[in-house]
Design brief:
Organism: Natrinema thermotolerans
Number of helices: 6
Low-confidence stretches: 206-212
InterPro entries: UDG_Type-4/5, Uracil-DNA_glycosylase-like, Uracil-DNA_glycosylase-like_sf
Largest sheet: 6 strands, mixed
GO molecular function: 4 iron, 4 sulfur cluster binding; deaminated base DNA N-glycosylase activity; metal ion binding
GO biological process, one term: DNA repair
Strand order of the largest sheet: 1-5-2-6-8-7
Mean pLDDT: 90
Number of strands: 8
Keywords: 4Fe-4S, DNA damage, DNA repair, Hydrolase, Iron, Iron-sulfur, Metal-binding
Strand content: 5-15%
Number of domains: 1
Order of helices and strands: EEHHEEEHEHHEEH
CATH class: Alpha Beta
């Protein structure tokens, strides 16, 4: 059994590489949860999926809480909504830094932080990657599978939602942005996760990835 670390928040001690926030604001929302997890949920940035006040991904905002609700439905999350206990699941963002209200990261901003996201993802070394929204899904498909060319640009997340895409030693299960969920989307991702948990999902892991 792996024992990467027992730290729940920012388990690998990352430091915020930039700080564009007000002095009293949180500089970044670091990865959170079970660092030995088999399931890694990957959001976009704090302004969309939350955590600028709590420091915990997938809190505060309606979109973030919708993702958290799915995690609770399948047994990954329990306890307070702003400080949940995660089991077999890790949460993080493609872009971890907080930004001023109503400001979104630019393409250059995302590029600047790629190394932090990649290092944490490889350190967690999960079997199942669950990118939320088009930005995170595009990033994961480009870097951790050979399948990106098979899909439209921009990605049609309605069609990809809750599907299974084989990657390089991982299984990718995209999640449509919760603000765009249609009837049945929540039930579809819950059902997919329940089916994976009931299966021998660890066989999805091929050659292990390493940090570096």
């Amino acid at each position: 059994m792996r024992n990467v670390t027992d730290r729940t928040s920012n388990p690998f001690g990352l430091r915020a590489p930039v700080d564009r926030s007000d002095p009293e604001d949180r500089a970044a929302v670091f990865g959170y949860g079970d660092a030995n997890a088999d399931f890694h949920v990957i959001g976009d940035y704090p302004g969309v999926h939350g955590g600028e006040t709590t420091g915990v991904p997938f809190t505060e905002t309606a979109a973030g809480l919708a993702v958290q609700d799915v995690a609770r439905a399948v047994g990954f999350a329990s306890g307070p909504r702003d400080d949940p206990v995660l089991e077999n699941c890790f949460w993080s963002y493609v872009y971890l830094c907080s930004l001023p209200a109503d400001e979104a990261p630019t393409d250059d901003d995302y590029a600047d932080l790629e190394r932090f996201f990649d290092a944490e993802l490889r350190a967690i070394n999960a079997h199942i990657l669950l990118p939320v929204g088009a930005r995170a899904t595009d990033r994961v498909l480009r870097e951790y599978t050979t399948q990106r060319r098979r899909y439209d640009d921009p990605l049609e997340m309605g069609a990809l939602h809750a599907s299974e895409i084989r990657g390089r030693g991982v299984l990718v299960v995209p999640i449509r942005e919760p603000s765009e969920w249609a009837d049945g989307d929540r039930e579809a991702i819950v059902a997919r996760l329940e089916a994976l948990l009931a299966s021998d999902y660890r066989q999805t892991k091929g050659v292990a990835t390493t940090v570096g």
